[in-house]
Amino acid sequence: MKKILHIIQWCMLGGSTLLVCVFLILILYHFFSLGFPVINANFLFRFPIDGMTKGGIFPAILGTVLVTLVSTLFAIPFGIACAIYLNEYARNTLLTKIIRASIRNLAGIPSIIYGLFGLALFVQALQFGTSMLSAGLTLGLLSLPYIITTTEEALKRVPDSTREGSLAIGATQFETIKDFVVPQALPGIITGVVLTISRVAGETAPILFTGVAFYINGIPGSLRQEFMALPYHLYMLSTQHQSIEEVRPLAYGTATVLILIVFLLNLFAFYIRYRQTKNG
Amino acid sequence: MDNTHIKLRTEGLHLRFGQKQVLKNITIDIEERKIIALIGPSGCGKTTLLRTFNRMHDLVDDVDITGKIWLEQTDIYSNQLPVTEIRRQIGMVFQKPNPFPKSIYENIAYGLKLKNTPKHEIHDIVEKSLRDSFLWDEVKDELKKPAHRLSGGQQQRLCIARTIAVKPSVILMDEPCSALDPISTSKVEDLILKLKDNYTIVMVTHNMQQAQRIADQVAFMYMGELIEMATNQEIFQEAKQELTRNYVSGHFG
Fold it and tell me: Which of B50, B131, B207, B223 is deepest in the core (most CB within 10 A)?
């Protein structure tokens, strides 16, 4: 009887795991099998031509990379500084509890709300217009709570004995953090940042009102210009194009490129984590 | 030098973590160039007391310290001196060896760089500190090696070397041998006995034999109070308090 129960338990747990894996594999297979035939050098490095029905997606790839870069440049310093403050300096008071709760809730806000907020703040109030800058800052806001949370976790894993050793020979708290705590937490911080980037790269809603464009004639050259981005390009090709059937292969190609970029970023994050655990 | 010169003293020291009273009215005089062992059962507050001397509780939430601690004429908690300067004068060695994740050389040079020691002096001080901690002969050819490759006992001696490099006058030791094997322990004990010539050493220990072997003075603490402090011999042979006698004879703790 016990043995049967054991087998049932095992089947339920194993089956659930398998089901998840099957879905992942189905998704990847579906997109890769239809997307890979489209992908070649022309597709990756050329502009769209003939009303998007031919040519490549180069400006969308570049736009996604650049807008992600802008968002990270904005979010990393603020996010890490905030995490250092919360974990190293702030006492456990009502105020810090409120700050922590806010950050957690911030992570739960739907991304379309960020988009509307970005529209109100960056595009209109700060007069950045619909641009790479506005979109990047909006994505940066979206990624802040993730960067703060993962950085705080990484800092928590640095043992107190490290801090004590440094303080005990007369280092200030700042020197201790700069010379030992942050370097030791760095792999964890980088992992968090990379995973956040991979999330941000696939976001559509926050850039929808703040800077993304259907088609831009030319490479995004300035922060004040609109830009093309992969997720939005995909959305357009799949639902808004006048000849959807004709551009369907291009849509699959775009999806595959987007998945690959995110996949590579995640792989990079896992590699860092692996190296960290290996070095103990 | 006068033999009974008082280096470190507390007056009516109380310490609370939140609602929990951990140290009660501790008044203790610690003589210069002596080894003082703090003994007592777990949770009696001996480590907490040790950490008040170099203000290691500063970063802890909810800690409330009243009373005075004097290092010679300096009130440690008065901000007469910055806390970093106090920690340079009162060094600390921890229970588990905690060398920095740097090379052996850098482990010692780091503290020197912090206090802006001129570059050309650093190498000599590193060498001298390593010699004074009986580590030089073992590591002189591999100063660039990461410190965590050393054995536990060597790491602990490196931590002592790093502490004496910044020239403290008092060294606090929190069960410095509890993570070490007997051979490493005896090396570290020899080192501590040698350090007595130049430093005042306050050491927390769980190990009664160790206290007996190396301490000049022994302070017995129980439930946050200092029950008795006397010479090594008095505590272990003819303690005045019954509690002390029971503890050192192994009845509890």
Answer: B50
A169-202 tens-digit pLDDT: 999 999 999 999 999 999 999 989 998 998 898 8
- Reported as a single tens digit per residue, the pLDDT across B102-155 is 999 999 999 999 989 999 999 999 999 999 999 999 999 999 999 999 999 999
**A62-88: pLDDT as tens digits:** 888 889 999 999 999 999 999 999 999
Structurally, chain B folds into a number of domains equal to 1
Interface test with A, best of B60, B84, B162 (most A CBs within 10 A): B84
Please indicate, yes or no, if residue B233 is contained in any of the structural domains. yes
CATH number for B12:
3.40.50.300
Q: Which of residues 180-199 of A touch B (CB under 8 A)?
A: 180, 183-184
Task: Please check whether residue B1 lies inside any domain of the structure.
Answer: no
Give the residue from A133, A273, A257 showing the smallest Cα distance to A192. Answer: A273
Phi, psi of B222, rounded to the nearest 5 degrees: -150, 125
Q: Report how many domains make up chain A.
A: 1
Give the ipTM.
Answer: 0.91
Q: Which domain holds residue A267?
A: 42-279
- Can you give the CATH number for the domain in which A231 is found? 1.10.3720.10
In this structure, what are the phi and psi dihedrals at residue B42, rounded to the nearest 5 degrees? -55, 140
Say if CB B224 and CB B42 are below 8 A apart: no
Interface of B with A in 47-86 (CB under 8 A): 54, 56, 59, 61, 84-85
In a domain, A22, yes or no: no
Q: Could you tell me if residue A268 is inside a domain?
A: yes
